[in-house]
Amino acid sequence: MADIDTNNIYTQLGLNPPTETRTKENDELGQTEFLELMTAQLTYQDPLKPMENGDFLGQMAQFGTVSGISELNNTFSSLSESFQSNQALQASTLVGRRVMVPSSNGYLAGGESLQGSVELVQSASKVTISIENQAGQIVNRQDLGAQQAGLIDFEWNGMDARGNPLPAGEYRVAAEVRRGNEVSAGQMYTVVDVESVTLGVGGQDLTLSVSGLGDIDMSQVRKIM
């Protein structure tokens, strides 16, 4: 417990301070010294004016509170170190993996396909996926038919409607969801490659650098492929 003048307390009790004192970092009173001092107070107190129970309990409570806070700080420090270690472990396993994130933009790499999902909160009579280039032109459509609620996967092979291969780059995907005469847009997810990972600072999430989309928070990842 900091800021306690033990020599002054010994003087008030009519005792000489001990000739040998323990050196404590920041002049703190440790548990052993506290108990020794408390024993001295009880031993040499005036029998006609004994220490009040409230005073005794107050000192014990004060020391216990400070000691508890110190132990709590040590616990939080250990938890923080453990969290950082877990983050580093996560980071080492994510680089080179594919993840699904909420985005209507996907990146078509050369010789690969563009994968994603549309999320339906309820069943639909028809779902149609549209692929647009950066100029906003629709280059391909996929009719997924009737679908139940949940994540509905799709995959585009990078060809236009005539079967011609399109250049690598960023494309936009959209879903037209029909329920009878009602038409709405579905929540889109695209699958992207993780190129690098930045560890979070101060309890923040990992930041993933993904192909074509830049940086995203780890909390946005819906699925790790």
Task: Walk me through this protein's architecture.
With 225 residues, the chain is an alpha+beta fold. It has two domains: 6-92, no CATH class; 98-191, Immunoglobulin-like, CATH 2.60.40.4070. Helices cover 28% and strands 35% of the residues. It contains three helices and twelve strands, in the order H-H-H-E-E-E-E-E-E-E-E-E-E-E-E. It has helices at residues 6-12, 31-44, 53-94; strands spanning 98-102, 105-108, 114-120, 124-132, 138-147, 150-156, 169-179, 182-185, 187-198, 207-210, 214-217, 223-224. The strands form two sheets. Strands 1, 3, 6, 9, 10, 11 and 12 form a seven-stranded antiparallel β-sheet that branches. Strands 2, 4, 5, 7 and 8 form a five-stranded antiparallel β-sheet that branches. Mean pLDDT is 77; it is low at 21-27.
CATH topology of the largest domain: the name is: Immunoglobulin-like
Tell me the radius of gyration.
34 Å
Structural class: alpha+beta
Helix content: 25-40%
> How much beta, percentage-wise?
35-45%
Uncertain segments are 21-27
- The outline comes out as elongated
CATH level-1 class of the largest domain: Mainly Beta
Quick check: average pLDDT? 77
| N-end to C-end Cα span | 53 Å
User: Major sheet, described briefly?
Assistant: 7 strands, antiparallel
H/E element string?
HHHEEEEEEEEEEEE
DSSP helical segment count:
3
How many E-type strands? 12
Write down the domain tally. Answer: 2
CATH architecture of the largest domain: Sandwich
Q: What is this entry, summarized?
A:
With 225 residues, the protein is of the alpha+beta class. Helices cover 28% and strands 35% of the residues.
